[in-house]
Amino acid sequence: MLVRTTESGTRSILAVEGEVDAHTAPQLKSAIAASLDRGTTELIVDLDQVTFMDSTGLGVLVGGLKGLREVGGELRIVCTRRPILRILEITGLDKVIPLYSGLAEATSV
After folding, report:
1. What is the pLDDT along the chain (109 residues), one digit of tens a residue?
2. CATH number for the 2-100 domain, one of 3.40.50.720, 3.30.565.10, 3.30.565.60, 3.30.750.24?
3. Beta-sheet pairing, 2-8 with 74-78
4. Where are the beta strands (DSSP E) in the chain?
5. pTM
6. Which of 3, 44, 71, 84 is the right S-S partner for 31, CB 3.0 to 4.6 Å?
7. Between helices 55-70 and 82-91, what is the axis angle to 10°?
């Protein structure tokens, strides 16, 4: 898995690529924590290049959401891949984390 971070002010964008599972999720967790440590209050996680995500990855997203809410921030997810969207829908995360079909849409909010 690869996580690329782009920052602008209090906004961070994490572009995630590959599989997010028990083995790789700690990388994503570290990237989210580092963004929060730098004062991010608007975090966009781009999952469009993620090919697989398990419950560990979902747990990392929920942890990030909680951390952001503690500082009055928000988490947004970019995702168009049907298998990943399905996981977010089944777990109900699509109801608590806003989903966007593209980075331009997520950053224009």
Report:
1. 999 999 999 999 999 999 999 999 999 999 999 999 999 999 999 999 999 999 999 999 999 999 999 999 999 999 999 999 999 999 999 999 999 999 999 999 8
2. 3.30.750.24
3. unpaired
4. 2-8, 11-20, 42-53, 74-78, 99-100
5. 0.96
6. 3
7. 60
